[in-house]
Design a protein that fits this description.
By secondary structure, the protein is an alpha+beta fold. It folds into two domains: 160 residues, Jelly Rolls, CATH 2.60.120; 72 residues, Orthogonal Bundle (Arc Repressor Mutant, subunit A), CATH 1.10.10.10. The chain is 37% helix and 18% strand. It is built from nine helices and ten strands. A four-stranded antiparallel sheet has the order 2-6-4-5. Strands 1-7-3 form a three-stranded antiparallel sheet. Helix 4 packs antiparallel against helix 9 and helix 6 packs across helix 7. The two termini are 34 Å apart.
Length: 284
Protein backbone atom coordinates (compact mmCIF):
# COMPACT_ATOMS: atom_id res chain seq x y z
CA UNK A 1 0.00 0.00 0.00
CA UNK A 2 1.29 3.46 -0.84
CA UNK A 3 2.22 5.80 2.04
CA UNK A 4 -0.53 7.90 3.55
CA UNK A 5 -1.34 11.09 1.67
CA UNK A 6 0.23 13.93 3.68
CA UNK A 7 -2.58 16.27 2.62
CA UNK A 8 -4.82 17.03 5.57
CA UNK A 9 -8.44 17.35 4.62
CA UNK A 10 -9.11 19.86 7.42
CA UNK A 11 -7.22 22.46 5.40
CA UNK A 12 -9.67 22.26 2.47
CA UNK A 13 -13.23 23.63 2.19
CA UNK A 14 -15.61 20.71 2.64
CA UNK A 15 -19.00 22.30 3.10
CA UNK A 16 -21.60 20.33 1.20
CA UNK A 17 -24.00 22.22 -1.05
CA UNK A 18 -26.86 19.89 -0.12
CA UNK A 19 -28.34 18.70 3.19
CA UNK A 20 -27.56 15.21 4.47
CA UNK A 21 -30.49 12.86 4.10
CA UNK A 22 -31.40 9.80 6.20
CA UNK A 23 -29.89 7.49 7.32
CA UNK A 24 -28.35 9.67 10.02
CA UNK A 25 -25.35 8.94 12.18
CA UNK A 26 -26.53 6.61 14.93
CA UNK A 27 -24.36 7.97 17.71
CA UNK A 28 -25.81 11.45 17.19
CA UNK A 29 -29.31 10.01 16.91
CA UNK A 30 -28.89 8.30 20.30
CA UNK A 31 -28.64 11.61 22.18
CA UNK A 32 -31.56 13.20 24.06
CA UNK A 33 -33.23 16.19 22.32
CA UNK A 34 -31.44 19.05 24.12
CA UNK A 35 -27.86 17.76 23.76
CA UNK A 36 -28.67 16.68 20.20
CA UNK A 37 -29.84 20.19 19.35
CA UNK A 38 -26.70 21.70 20.86
CA UNK A 39 -24.41 19.42 18.87
CA UNK A 40 -26.46 19.92 15.72
CA UNK A 41 -25.85 23.66 15.90
CA UNK A 42 -22.11 23.00 15.78
CA UNK A 43 -22.08 20.48 12.93
CA UNK A 44 -21.40 21.04 9.25
CA UNK A 45 -22.19 18.66 6.42
CA UNK A 46 -19.17 17.48 4.43
CA UNK A 47 -18.49 15.23 1.45
CA UNK A 48 -15.56 12.86 1.91
CA UNK A 49 -13.66 11.47 -1.10
CA UNK A 50 -12.24 7.94 -1.10
CA UNK A 51 -8.55 7.70 -0.23
CA UNK A 52 -8.42 11.05 1.57
CA UNK A 53 -6.54 11.27 4.85
CA UNK A 54 -8.69 13.01 7.47
CA UNK A 55 -5.81 13.19 9.96
CA UNK A 56 -2.56 11.40 10.68
CA UNK A 57 -1.30 9.61 13.77
CA UNK A 58 0.56 11.92 16.13
CA UNK A 59 -1.14 15.11 14.95
CA UNK A 60 -3.37 17.33 17.05
CA UNK A 61 -6.98 16.80 16.04
CA UNK A 62 -8.82 19.82 14.68
CA UNK A 63 -12.08 18.05 13.85
CA UNK A 64 -14.06 14.90 14.50
CA UNK A 65 -16.31 13.24 11.91
CA UNK A 66 -19.64 11.47 12.33
CA UNK A 67 -20.02 9.38 9.14
CA UNK A 68 -23.44 9.06 7.53
CA UNK A 69 -22.78 7.26 4.23
CA UNK A 70 -18.96 7.47 4.25
CA UNK A 71 -16.83 4.66 5.69
CA UNK A 72 -13.47 5.48 7.33
CA UNK A 73 -10.56 3.14 8.10
CA UNK A 74 -8.47 3.76 11.20
CA UNK A 75 -4.93 2.67 10.35
CA UNK A 76 -1.64 2.38 12.21
CA UNK A 77 1.25 3.65 10.05
CA UNK A 78 4.89 2.53 10.15
CA UNK A 79 8.04 4.46 9.34
CA UNK A 80 8.46 2.72 5.96
CA UNK A 81 5.11 4.14 4.80
CA UNK A 82 3.14 0.93 5.19
CA UNK A 83 0.15 0.64 7.48
CA UNK A 84 -2.59 -1.73 8.60
CA UNK A 85 -6.23 -1.16 9.47
CA UNK A 86 -7.08 -1.48 13.16
CA UNK A 87 -10.78 -0.56 12.95
CA UNK A 88 -13.42 0.76 10.58
CA UNK A 89 -16.01 3.44 11.38
CA UNK A 90 -19.34 4.03 9.70
CA UNK A 91 -22.66 5.57 10.63
CA UNK A 92 -22.56 3.87 14.04
CA UNK A 93 -19.81 6.07 15.43
CA UNK A 94 -17.35 8.94 15.34
CA UNK A 95 -13.87 9.36 13.90
CA UNK A 96 -11.46 11.13 16.25
CA UNK A 97 -12.25 9.85 19.76
CA UNK A 98 -8.97 11.22 21.12
CA UNK A 99 -10.45 14.73 20.81
CA UNK A 100 -12.68 14.15 23.84
CA UNK A 101 -10.48 11.66 25.73
CA UNK A 102 -8.17 14.33 27.15
CA UNK A 103 -5.09 14.17 24.94
CA UNK A 104 -6.30 15.60 21.66
CA UNK A 105 -3.53 13.86 19.68
CA UNK A 106 -4.50 11.15 17.20
CA UNK A 107 -3.28 7.64 18.05
CA UNK A 108 -4.01 6.36 14.53
CA UNK A 109 -4.52 7.80 11.08
CA UNK A 110 -7.98 8.04 9.48
CA UNK A 111 -8.42 7.34 5.76
CA UNK A 112 -11.72 7.48 3.87
CA UNK A 113 -12.36 4.00 2.49
CA UNK A 114 -15.78 4.55 0.92
CA UNK A 115 -16.80 8.02 -0.29
CA UNK A 116 -19.88 9.63 1.13
CA UNK A 117 -21.25 12.20 3.52
CA UNK A 118 -20.50 12.95 7.15
CA UNK A 119 -21.02 15.54 9.86
CA UNK A 120 -17.93 17.45 10.96
CA UNK A 121 -17.41 19.22 14.30
CA UNK A 122 -14.43 21.04 15.74
CA UNK A 123 -12.37 19.12 18.28
CA UNK A 124 -12.83 21.99 20.73
CA UNK A 125 -16.62 21.80 20.50
CA UNK A 126 -16.82 18.03 21.01
CA UNK A 127 -14.46 18.27 23.99
CA UNK A 128 -16.56 21.06 25.52
CA UNK A 129 -19.79 19.12 24.94
CA UNK A 130 -18.34 15.96 26.50
CA UNK A 131 -17.17 17.93 29.55
CA UNK A 132 -20.37 19.90 30.08
CA UNK A 133 -23.12 17.47 29.01
CA UNK A 134 -23.25 14.14 30.80
CA UNK A 135 -25.46 12.39 28.17
CA UNK A 136 -22.95 13.29 25.47
CA UNK A 137 -19.97 12.00 27.44
CA UNK A 138 -21.87 8.84 28.39
CA UNK A 139 -22.69 7.90 24.81
CA UNK A 140 -19.22 8.84 23.53
CA UNK A 141 -17.56 6.66 26.18
CA UNK A 142 -19.89 3.75 25.48
CA UNK A 143 -19.06 3.96 21.78
CA UNK A 144 -15.33 4.27 22.52
CA UNK A 145 -15.45 1.09 24.60
CA UNK A 146 -16.90 -0.80 21.62
CA UNK A 147 -14.30 0.78 19.34
CA UNK A 148 -11.44 -0.30 21.62
CA UNK A 149 -12.80 -3.87 21.53
CA UNK A 150 -12.80 -3.59 17.74
CA UNK A 151 -9.19 -2.40 17.66
CA UNK A 152 -7.93 -4.99 20.12
CA UNK A 153 -9.62 -7.87 18.32
CA UNK A 154 -8.33 -6.70 14.94
CA UNK A 155 -4.77 -6.61 16.27
CA UNK A 156 -5.12 -10.20 17.53
CA UNK A 157 -6.67 -11.23 14.20
CA UNK A 158 -3.71 -9.90 12.21
CA UNK A 159 -1.33 -11.94 14.35
CA UNK A 160 -3.10 -15.28 14.75
CA UNK A 161 -5.57 -16.01 11.94
CA UNK A 162 -5.17 -17.27 8.39
CA UNK A 163 -5.61 -14.76 5.59
CA UNK A 164 -8.84 -16.14 4.05
CA UNK A 165 -10.82 -15.90 7.33
CA UNK A 166 -9.31 -12.45 7.90
CA UNK A 167 -10.50 -11.36 4.47
CA UNK A 168 -14.01 -12.63 5.26
CA UNK A 169 -13.98 -10.64 8.51
CA UNK A 170 -12.74 -7.50 6.77
CA UNK A 171 -15.34 -7.71 4.00
CA UNK A 172 -18.18 -8.24 6.49
CA UNK A 173 -17.15 -5.31 8.68
CA UNK A 174 -17.09 -2.97 5.70
CA UNK A 175 -20.34 -4.29 4.24
CA UNK A 176 -22.04 -3.68 7.60
CA UNK A 177 -21.27 0.02 7.21
CA UNK A 178 -22.46 0.58 3.65
CA UNK A 179 -25.49 0.05 1.49
CA UNK A 180 -25.47 -2.85 -0.97
CA UNK A 181 -23.24 -5.88 -1.42
CA UNK A 182 -20.61 -4.44 -3.76
CA UNK A 183 -17.26 -2.78 -3.11
CA UNK A 184 -14.83 -1.04 -5.42
CA UNK A 185 -11.36 -1.66 -4.03
CA UNK A 186 -8.14 -3.08 -5.41
CA UNK A 187 -6.26 -6.06 -4.06
CA UNK A 188 -3.33 -3.74 -3.35
CA UNK A 189 -5.57 -1.63 -1.14
CA UNK A 190 -6.94 -4.64 0.72
CA UNK A 191 -3.41 -5.98 1.22
CA UNK A 192 -2.43 -2.63 2.74
CA UNK A 193 -5.40 -2.68 5.10
CA UNK A 194 -4.60 -6.23 6.24
CA UNK A 195 -0.85 -5.66 6.39
CA UNK A 196 -0.03 -8.54 4.02
CA UNK A 197 1.41 -9.10 0.54
CA UNK A 198 -0.82 -8.59 -2.50
CA UNK A 199 -0.21 -12.17 -3.63
CA UNK A 200 -1.74 -13.41 -0.40
CA UNK A 201 -4.91 -11.40 -0.97
CA UNK A 202 -5.09 -12.71 -4.55
CA UNK A 203 -4.94 -16.29 -3.33
CA UNK A 204 -7.51 -15.70 -0.56
CA UNK A 205 -9.91 -13.92 -2.94
CA UNK A 206 -9.65 -16.75 -5.47
CA UNK A 207 -10.37 -19.23 -2.70
CA UNK A 208 -13.52 -17.35 -1.67
CA UNK A 209 -14.56 -17.02 -5.30
CA UNK A 210 -14.18 -20.78 -5.92
CA UNK A 211 -16.40 -21.36 -2.89
CA UNK A 212 -19.08 -19.14 -4.41
CA UNK A 213 -18.87 -16.53 -1.67
CA UNK A 214 -17.72 -13.53 -3.73
CA UNK A 215 -17.07 -12.47 -7.30
CA UNK A 216 -13.93 -10.39 -7.87
CA UNK A 217 -12.93 -8.64 -11.09
CA UNK A 218 -10.57 -5.69 -11.59
CA UNK A 219 -11.12 -3.84 -8.35
CA UNK A 220 -14.78 -4.77 -8.04
CA UNK A 221 -16.00 -7.18 -5.36
CA UNK A 222 -19.56 -8.46 -5.18
CA UNK A 223 -20.64 -10.60 -2.25
CA UNK A 224 -22.70 -13.56 -3.44
CA UNK A 225 -23.22 -15.40 -0.15
CA UNK A 226 -23.06 -13.26 2.98
CA UNK A 227 -24.03 -16.11 5.29
CA UNK A 228 -21.25 -18.18 3.78
CA UNK A 229 -18.79 -15.34 4.49
CA UNK A 230 -19.91 -15.31 8.11
CA UNK A 231 -19.40 -19.07 8.37
CA UNK A 232 -15.88 -18.85 6.87
CA UNK A 233 -14.86 -15.78 8.89
CA UNK A 234 -12.68 -16.09 11.96
CA UNK A 235 -14.19 -15.59 15.42
CA UNK A 236 -13.16 -11.94 15.41
CA UNK A 237 -16.13 -10.80 13.35
CA UNK A 238 -18.57 -12.16 15.92
CA UNK A 239 -16.63 -10.70 18.86
CA UNK A 240 -16.65 -7.21 17.37
CA UNK A 241 -20.26 -7.42 16.19
CA UNK A 242 -21.39 -8.39 19.70
CA UNK A 243 -19.56 -5.39 21.14
CA UNK A 244 -21.55 -3.04 18.92
CA UNK A 245 -24.76 -4.94 19.59
CA UNK A 246 -24.17 -4.53 23.32
CA UNK A 247 -23.70 -0.81 22.70
CA UNK A 248 -27.23 -0.68 21.32
CA UNK A 249 -28.86 -3.02 23.80
CA UNK A 250 -27.26 -1.32 26.80
CA UNK A 251 -28.90 2.05 26.15
CA UNK A 252 -32.59 2.81 25.75
CA UNK A 253 -31.59 5.96 23.87
CA UNK A 254 -29.69 4.17 21.12
CA UNK A 255 -31.69 3.81 17.86
CA UNK A 256 -33.32 0.40 17.61
CA UNK A 257 -33.56 -1.61 14.40
CA UNK A 258 -34.80 -5.00 13.45
CA UNK A 259 -31.60 -6.21 11.80
CA UNK A 260 -27.88 -5.98 12.49
CA UNK A 261 -26.18 -3.75 15.02
CA UNK A 262 -25.13 -1.33 12.28
CA UNK A 263 -28.45 -1.15 10.45
CA UNK A 264 -29.84 2.14 9.18
CA UNK A 265 -31.29 4.60 11.68
CA UNK A 266 -33.77 7.12 10.34
CA UNK A 267 -34.06 9.38 13.36
CA UNK A 268 -34.64 12.94 12.06
CA UNK A 269 -32.33 15.82 12.84
CA UNK A 270 -33.45 18.36 15.47
CA UNK A 271 -35.69 21.07 14.07
CA UNK A 272 -33.73 24.18 13.12
CA UNK A 273 -35.99 26.30 15.32
CA UNK A 274 -34.69 24.53 18.45
CA UNK A 275 -31.00 24.95 17.71
CA UNK A 276 -28.80 26.93 20.06
CA UNK A 277 -26.58 29.77 18.80
CA UNK A 278 -23.69 28.82 16.54
CA UNK A 279 -20.38 27.86 18.10
CA UNK A 280 -17.53 30.26 18.50
CA UNK A 281 -14.71 30.32 15.99
CA UNK A 282 -12.27 27.37 16.17
CA UNK A 283 -9.22 27.80 18.41
CA UNK A 284 -6.15 28.88 16.45
Amino acid sequence: MRPLDPRVIDETPLLSTHPLAAPENQLLASLPPEPAALLQSRLEAVDLAAGTTLYQAGTVLRHVYFPVTAVVSLVSPLQDGSCAEVAVVGREGVVGVCAFMGGGTALSSAVVQRPGTAWRMSARDIADAARDLEPVMQQLLRYTQALFTHMAQTSACHRHHALAPQLCRWLLQHLDRQAGDEMRITQDRIAGMLGVRREGVTGAALQLQRQGLIHYNRGHIRVLDRRGLEQHSCECYGVVERAYQQLRNGSSAWPKTGSSALAVSRTPRPNAATRLPAASAPRR
